[in-house]
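Summary of Year 1 activities. Much of the first year was spent building the evaluation harness for sequence design. The harness presents a backbone, in tokenized form, and records the residue chosen at every position. We chose the following record to illustrate the format because it has been used consistently in internal testing since the harness was completed.
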């Protein structure tokens, strides 16, 4: 049985659906700090299966009960705080949540003989001075406490592996996950004003916000706007399943990028979304956002080689699916 932490979050919920579709047995935990309990109902109607779930924080000692109750063989650890800007204001909360949660989980993995661990890492672990595309062996370092919490988590896991070699870890460095399940029943449902580009564009398109602020038109990029490697959340979900299979078959740890391997600018994404939604999306170019970089995209050579797997979904598909979710659920899960 697979334990998913952060199971009702954006990436957790999509991975949950993908695992169930592939016949895995899953138990999910989440403290709902950045997700909605209604996700569980949607997963049920989408999969025709009752999701097994416990409302719990990964830092809570009661997580032990979950390990005692279910025959857990693998963990996919999504649960973490993830807003870059907020982490600068609240470093203690970020280190506490992201590091103590991981440590609690690792102790339980050891005492319960869990040998497979998939970790949600991030492209933000690459030092901003590295040239793009980012390769897995490049220098690590970050510009935010959030990013450092991911660098430190990777280090904790590597130290843990040395002391407990039976445990194999997939370090999955996500680039920019966007889009939604093709049913439009689950998707990204940020609280308050979205920090990220795709949910912001979606909310402008649906009429919840007046215009998009484009952070900087003078970056050294194709059109002056920031370039990122957007990956469809269902491709990302598949990547987790493939990584689990790798750990089970090869019994080796792996560190790989999960991106498409191509950069897309803010204005390119905006125009793809206008076509997908059939709506005009007003925007204004404003100052650069603190902490941003010009370009961030993955070298996916190693990912293809080791996992023998590639992403399938295009930018157009990402926009179509994001729009289906947003237009069917203009106010997210509370719609
Ligand atoms: N952008 C805008 N306007 C907005 C929001 C974003 O112009 O309202 C621009 C940004 O400046 C950037 C691009 O759109 O050029 C993407 O920004 P996001 O906030 O969507 O994503 P980031 O690349 O800044 O950050 C994301 C995740 C982080 C993660 C990082 C890894 O939010 O958690 O990718 O590369 F660490």
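For this record, the design step produced the sequence shown next.
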């Amino acid at each position: 049985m697979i334990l998913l932490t952060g199971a009702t979050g954006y990436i957790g919920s999509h991975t949950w659906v993908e695992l169930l579709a592939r016949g895995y047995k899953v138990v999910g935990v989440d403290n709902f700090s950045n997700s909605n309990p209604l996700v569980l109902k949607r997963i049920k109607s989408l999969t025709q299966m009752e999701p097994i779930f416990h409302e719990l924080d990964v830092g809570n000692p009661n997580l032990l009960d979950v390990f005692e109750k279910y025959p857990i063989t693998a963990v996919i650890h999504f649960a973490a705080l993830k807003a870059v800007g907020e982490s600068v204001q609240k470093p203690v909360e970020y280190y506490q949540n992201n590091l103590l949660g991981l440590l609690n989980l690792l102790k339980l993995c050891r005492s319960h003989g869990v040998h497979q661990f998939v970790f949600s890492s991030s492209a933000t672990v690459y030092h901003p001075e590295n040239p793009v595309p980012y390769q897995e062996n490049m220098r690590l370092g970050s510009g935010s406490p959030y990013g450092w919490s991911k660098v430190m988590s990777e280090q904790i896991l590597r130290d843990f592996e040395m002391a407990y070699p039976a445990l194999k870890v997939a370090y999955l460095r996500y680039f920019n996950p966007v889009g939604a399940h093709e049913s439009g029943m689950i998707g990204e449902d940020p609280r308050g004003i979205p920090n990220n580009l795709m949910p912001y564009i979606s909310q402008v398109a649906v009429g919840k916000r007046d215009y998009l602020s484009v952070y900087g038109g003078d970056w050294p990029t194709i059109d002056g706007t920031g370039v990122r490697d957007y990956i469809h959340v269902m491709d990302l979900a598949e990547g987790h399943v493939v990584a689990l299979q790798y750990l089970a078959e090869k019994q080796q740890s792996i560190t790989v990028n999960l991106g498409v391997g191509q950069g897309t600018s803010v204005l390119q994404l905006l125009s793809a979304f206008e076509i997908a939604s059939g709506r005009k999306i007003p925007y204004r170019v404003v100052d650069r956002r603190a902490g941003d970089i010009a370009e961030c995209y993955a070298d996916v050579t190693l990912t293809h080689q080791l996992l023998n797997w590639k992403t399938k979904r295009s930018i157009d598909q990402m926009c179509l699916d994001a729009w289906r979710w947003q237009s069917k659920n203009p106010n997210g899960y509370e719609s």
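The longest helix spans residues 91-111. Quantitative recovery figures across the full test set are reported in Table 2.
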